[in-house]
Specification:
Helix content is 83%, strand content 0%.
């Protein structure tokens, strides 16, 4: 009975992770870049935030294929050779490097968003305060979504890298 409950919980957790991943991709697609508000700093922040979101989402989408290729080793659909595994390790390491760069941008944009949010009441003319506020809120959502996607993707990358290093050890390529 305990084993049955454990299996149910494990399946529920796995299902939640799968839904979360879909939700992040769906959220990324749904969050649209607003029009410029006409205040240079706020527009630049918006453009940088949405470019980051799009780049992170694209990296996540592209990584799905690499991850699928790695999974083919387990099902014997792809030959486990030193050359194949080392090539995939290099690709995964390249993605990991990109994730670090994206993470640095998230940190920087998070700080910029806080600063702009606290200064929005100083925007001139005052008629631009509301659009600047709305754009900043949407931009912060884009940065937060980028952070969430990066966290999910980093987890996948770590698992795949560990898998590949294990395969490389088995085929004598270390």
């Amino acid at each position: 009975m305990k084993r049955l409950i454990f299996c149910f919980i494990a399946l529920a957790f796995a299902g939640t992770l799968s839904v979360m991943a879909q939700t992040l991709q769906q959220q990324s697609t749904a969050l649209k870049k607003p029009a410029d508000c006409g205040v240079t700093d706020y527009d630049a922040f918006k453009n940088s935030s949405f470019t980051l979101k799009d780049d992170v989402a694209k990296t996540d989408k592209n990584y799905e294929q690499l991850s699928a290729d790695i999974a083919k080793y387990a099902s014997s659909e792809r030959p486990v050779t030193v050359e194949n595994v080392k090539g995939d390790i290099n690709k995964v390491k390249d993605v990991k490097t990109s994730l670090k760069t994206f993470d640095e941008k998230v940190v920087s944009l998070t700080e910029t968003g806080k600063t702009l949010s606290s200064n929005v009441t100083s925007v001139k003319p005052v008629t631009k305060i509301k659009p600047a506020t709305t754009n900043t809120k949407d931009s912060v959502k884009a940065v937060d979504l980028s952070r969430d996607i990066l966290k999910s993707l980093a987890s996948k990358v770590d698992v795949d890298l560990e898998t590949l290093n294990g395969l490389l050890a088995k085929v004598g390529g270390q």
